[in-house]
Design a protein that fits this description.
It is built from 6 helices and 2 strands. With about 150 residues, it is mainly alpha-helical. The chain has a domain of about 100 residues: Arc Repressor Mutant, subunit A (Orthogonal Bundle). Strands 1-2 form a two-stranded antiparallel ribbon. Helix 1 packs across helix 3 and helix 1 crosses helix 4.
C-alpha cells in the first residue's frame, strides 16, 4: 500500500477512534469501515501505538483507543507516526551517469521536494482530528460510529 493510501487509512482509523471516545475499537471494525483487510489496520494501529497516539487493550472487550483528545492530535502527528520515507523520491544517479542534466538535477529536485514536503507537514500540523471531524459535519449522522458492529 502506498504512503498516500496508508495516510488516508491512518486518518480514517484515528477518526473512528476519536468518535468512539474511550470505547475500544477492533481492527475488524475499522477494516469494515475503511474497506480493507484487518491486518492493514492492525499495522497502522501499531504505528499509532508506537508513536503514543493510541493504546490497545487486549482480551475480551479490547481494542484500540486514542491516548489524548482529538483536538490534541494533528494530521501531521498521524503522518509522522507512519514513519514513511520521503514523500517525493528522487532517483539516485552517480557521477558516471551519462547525462549532465541527470547528474545535476538530483540535488535541486531534492531541495524542491524537501521544501514541498515541509510545507505539506506544516499545513497538516494546523489541522487536528477534531477539525477534521467538524469538516465532515452533517455527512456523519450522530452515533454512526457507535453503530459500527462490535461483532
Amino acid at each position: 500500500m502506498g504512503s498516500n493510501s496508508r495516510l488516508a487509512v491512518a486518518v480514517h482509523t484515528a477518526g473512528i477512534l476519536a468518535l468512539r471516545g474511550r470505547q475500544p475499537v477492533t481492527s475488524d471494525m475499522v477494516a469494515t469501515s475503511v474497506g480493507t483487510n484487518p491486518v492493514v489496520v492492525r499495522r497502522i494501529i501499531g504505528c499509532l501505538v508506537k508513536s503514543g497516539i493510541a493504546e490497545v487493550r487486549k482480551g475480551s472487550g479490547g481494542g484500540a483507543f486514542l491516548t489524548r483528545p482529538a483536538n490534541a492530535i494533528t494530521i501531521a502527528d498521524i503522518y509522522a507516526a507512519l514513519g514513511e520515507d520521503e514523500l517525493f523520491q528522487v532517483p539516485s544517479l552517480g557521477k558516471e551517469h551519462e547525462c549532465p542534466i541527470g547528474r545535476a538535477v538530483r540535488p535541486i529536485l531534492h531541495q524542491l521536494f524537501s521544501g514541498a514536503e515541509e510545507a505539506m507537514i506544516g499545513y497538516l500540523a494546523g489541522i487536528n482530528l477534531e477539525d477534521l471531524i467538524k469538516m465532515l459535519g452533517e455527512d456523519i449522522p450522530d452515533g454512526i460510529c457507535g453503530e459500527i458492529s462490535d461483532d
